[in-house]
Amino acid sequence: MGVNKLKLAVLISGRGSNLKALMDACADEAFPAKIALVLSNRAEAEGLKFALAGELPTVVVNHKDFPDRLSFDMAVHAEIVKSGANLVVLAGFMRILTPEFVNLWPGRMINIHPSLLPDYKGLDTHARALADGQSEAGCTVHYVVPEMDSGPIIVQKRVPVLPGDTPDTLGERVLEQEHAAYPEAVRIVARSLLK
Description:
Elements (H helix, E strand, L loop, with lengths): L5 E7 L4 H10 L6 E8 L6 H7 L4 E3 L8 H15 L3 E4 L8 H4 L6 E5 L11 H7 L4 E8 L9 E8 L6 H27 L2
Parallel strand pairs: 1-2, 1-4, 2-3, 4-5
Antiparallel strand pairs: 5-6, 6-7
């Protein structure tokens, strides 16, 4: 009897390192999720190479092909529905999503953010944490709500800020924790959604 698995649609715009971490987690037979779709808004996104190498279904929906955010979001929504996915996983998807789209996936869309939310919503999180003299940084996996980087927190991982850290060195350590945090969060969400 196979494990009942949550189907993930992973949305990416770039290098796909969190996608890779999720692919590795899904390779474990006991993991309660599998990837049903990898969608990117950029045909040149590096992460698509991981997806293709892993023989995952991929699709590109280029935001430049649409007159506005909402029509792009609805095209993305249609692809997710077609894939049969029941959880949307934003893994470095660099588009601000419309409230109309977010509200179609209540409690079924999660995002990873490179700060300890509620601190440092938005961009340049590591530079801002360093500028403020923070002693620790980290990442947060949270449910997506219409307000950016504001949904309920699922998992946080912390890293110390070290003397001499730059945004890049701090970012590398935070990224390592992201690769642990995202599979952990998917496992938690899968448990609740598969009940």
